[in-house]
Amino acid sequence: MFGDAGNIFAKVTVSSYRFALDRYSNWSSRLWIEGATVFATHHIAWFVVISLGALLLMVFSLSYACGFETFESNLLLALCIVGLFPINSLASAGWIATTVNYLWPLAFFIFWLSIFIRRYVNSSSLPIRMTALLCLALSVFSEVLAVAAACCLLLEVIIHRRKCVSWFFGFSTLITIAGMLNVLLCPGNAIRKTREISNWFPQFEEFNIVDRVVIQSVHLATSVLETYGNLLTVFIIILACLSMVQGRKFLALLLMMVLMIFTLLGPKAQVDFQTISDLVHRSQLSHQQIVSIYPMALVFVGSLVLIVVTAASLFGLTEATVAVSVPLTISSVIGLGRRACLQL
């Protein structure tokens, strides 16, 4: 249950607060998250209760953010998005450490996102908006979610321009900037980056940016094909059914093409990608071997992009599109983020 990192937290004898401060100086900008992990490893019952609450919060928030009339109408879609979170690829740290470090902050972030993107349609009460801002403040202690929040705010400016200006948007921006500064200035992050590169990817400096992106695409593909193939299939079929209901047969055809690509090329891609992953772990990967999988990696990434483009065409460039695509993007980035080579 604890895993490698979890065993470290389980052996901590100092207070959660003192441990979090020490980790901030020597390992990570995730201040409260580190302390919460210590608490969770020593209080399993509370860990289970809070984790269940986080999952329910994610489902409710995604259902609300997608903009359908009732919670039940898109419950299955929300559950699929939650299920696509690549938590198994992070489990080497231990189930408790993984859940606290990734699921808890992500649940807070998705709740803020649901209030943020639906505020033009449904005016939430002041306490709800203040709670959403608090959730955002907690979530941006995670490096990936700080970047995700910045991207959401930028997209909001592009879509709505001056209309987006409000006290809620302003405070969200200030909180996100503070989160980004926390990540950039945290002394522990620099130390962790050096150690993680040495630990996970000693050949890091030998490859260019394109090679590193391809390697990360392979890591994502391996996780999806091995663990989430069936769930991704269900998700594609749901989007295809929504396309048919709206009379968008061309979009449904595109999604079926993506499904065929995964079905026909999946077995070979899985073997090729696993081979590359093994070579990375053994520090035996060459540039020529990376080049050999460029086409397969391009097809896979292109298929994922096609899913997002289809969703954008189905819903339009609106908050609903953001609600569908952002959680998937965040999930993918978090799935990659455990590897030091994500630091390009």
Key features of this structure:
344 residues; globular; disordered C terminus
Number of distinct helices: 16
N to C succession of SSEs: HHHHHHHHHHHHHHHH
Spatial separation of the terminal alpha carbons: 32 Å
In terms of DSSP E residues, the strand content is under 5%
Overall 3D shape: globular
Largest sheet: none
Structural class: mainly alpha
- Compute the number of strand runs: 0
Helix content: over 70%
Radius of gyration from the alpha-carbon trace, in angstroms: 20 Å
User: How confident overall, as mean pLDDT?
Assistant: 77
Extract low-pLDDT stretches: 335-344
Explain this structure:
- The chain is mainly α.
- The protein is 77% helix and 0% strand.
- The longest helix is centred in the last third of the chain and has 33 residues, at 249-281.
- The protein is globular.
- The chain starts with a helix and ends in a 7-residue tail after the last helix.
- Mean pLDDT is 77; it is low at 335-344.
Question: Mind sketching the topology for me?
Answer:
Elements: H1 3-10, H2 16-26, H3 31-42, H4 44-65, H5 75-83, H6 95-117, H7 126-139, H8 143-160, H9 167-185, H10 187-200, H11 209-227, H12 229-245, H13 249-281, H14 287-292, H15 294-315, H16 319-337
Helix pairs in contact: 2-3, 2-10, 3-4, 3-6, 4-5, 4-6, 5-12, 6-7, 6-8, 6-16, 7-9, 8-9, 8-16, 11-13, 11-15, 12-13, 13-15, 15-16
